[in-house]
Amino acid sequence: MTATAARFPAEWEPQAAILLAWPHAGTDWAERLAEVEETYIALVGAIARFQPALVCVADADVEAYARARLASARIDMARVRFLPLDYDDTWLRDTGPVTLRDGAGFRMLDFRFTGWGGKFAADRDDRLAGRLHQLPEFSGNGLQAIDFALEGGAIETDGQGSLLTTWRCLHERHPDVGREQLETRLRGWLAQERVLWLEHGYLEGDDTDAHIDTLARFAAADAIVHQACDDPDDAHHAELAAMAEELAALRDRQGRPYRLFALPWPRPIHDGGRRLAASYANFLIVNGAVLMPAYGDPADGAAQALLQRAFPDREIVPVPCRALIWQNGSLHCLTMQLPAGSVAL
User: Fold this and answer.
1) Which UniProt keywords apply (predicted)?
2) Considering the entire predicted model, what is its pTM?
3) For residue 102, which of 186, 189, 225 has the smallest C-alpha distance?
4) Closest among 337, 108, 319 to 217, alpha carbons compared
5) Residue 235: inside a domain
6) d(CA 62, CA 200)
């Protein structure tokens, strides 16, 4: 790749801000809104320790309420900016733009969002990236609308041309497109040189059809952190063990096995009779830190220690996320990083 070629930055590269959307009574959070708001306050507060947070708000009332709640928590409001923008739900990892470095500037990729394969209403969320581009903070970037369903949680890059994803998710979205054609499209749109496919891995309660960001994440160009299951009686054990074998067989761009970091397995969490998808792999990398989902589980401490080994130069900051998995996602799913220089602040 030349110096002026498009490039998809890794999440650990310098960031301008983190994008997220405030929950309100018109979203799917309505039933447990008070509990979820506490998680959002902790999340925005953790982000603001390290960099700006751009918070989408559906209307002026939502903004006033969010501003008051965050200010009362003594969060540095100089690092919080509100963006007036309506949305169906708050999973901005999947509805926000995928941002590429493009020569001396940036290009926002606006893929189709179909509510994870038509499972949920998504008209406003499908328009979110394009409407963001109309705001002054983003208007200096290019915008490329792509008529292809792809969620940000389904893809993971090392910033050097390697893309990690799951066949289950991409095939579910595009059952009539073969693997070779899918790979060609992904490499072209996302400026990648190769695609690493995982055939195994899933979490009960996950309605994304096995997004990679709940399963395996790059920690460096030669390292991958992945969710493991050490309970042989758990329904996930065989599948996650098979995924670990796949990861062990992968090679980095120098032809070496990846350094692998296996995350501990939290105890099962249920909501009524439904098991919830709790994964420590759904962490968020920010400038100088990794924000880690915590579930009030004895394994939280071991997960924090493991992530510290994987990211020795960053602070590991637990954020309480048990309330989030009621809606089948966690911390990374709510957020989208914006590369340094891509936002006018």
Assistant:
1) Hydrolase
2) 0.97
3) 189
4) 337
5) yes
6) 41
Catalytic residue among 56, 169, 321, 333: 333
- Residue 10 belongs to some domain of the structure: no
Whole-angstrom distance, CA of residue 226 vs CA of residue 264? 9
Phi, psi dihedral angles at 300 (to 5 degrees): -55, -45
- For 287, the 3-state DSSP assignment is coil
Cα separation of 242 and 220, whole Å?
A: 22
Give the pLDDT of residue 1.
Answer: 42
The one-letter amino acid code at 108 reads M
Task: Give one word for 139, left, alpha or beta, with left for phi > 0 and alpha for psi -120 to 50.
Answer: alpha
The number of folded domains in the chain is 1
Report how far apart, in Å, the C-alpha atoms of 343 and of each of 16, 48, 76 are. Answer: 6, 16, 19
Q: Does residue 169 have an active-site annotation?
A: no
pLDDT at 45: 98
**CA–CA distance, 263 with 50 (Å, rounded to integer):** 24
Distance between CA 345 and CA 210 in Å, rounded?
35
What 3-state class would DSSP assign to 283?
coil
Q: What does the alpha-carbon distance between residue 114 and residue 254 come to, in Å, rounded to a whole number?
A: 37
Q: In this structure, is residue 108 part of a structural domain?
A: yes
Contact in structure between 162 and 196 (CB atoms under 8 Å) = yes
Q: Two tokens at 250?
A: 């992968």
> What element of type H or E holds 339?
strand 336-339
Task: Give the residue numbers spanning the domain of 335.
Answer: 15-339
Region 65-91: mean pLDDT is 97
Mean pLDDT calculated for residue range 160-182: 97
* CATH number of domain containing 49: 3.75.10.10
Q: What pLDDT is attached to residue 4?
A: 59
Burial class (CB in 10 A: 0-12, 13-18, 19+), 23: buried
Tell me if 92 is assigned to some domain. yes
**pLDDT tens digits for range 79-114:** 999 999 999 999 999 999 999 999 999 999 999 999
Cα–Cα dist 76/48, whole Å: 7
DSSP lists the bridge partners of residue 220 as 223
Characterize 53-69 residue by residue with b for buried, 16 or more Cβ atoms within 10 angstroms of its Cβ, and e for exposed: bbbbbbeeebbeebbeb
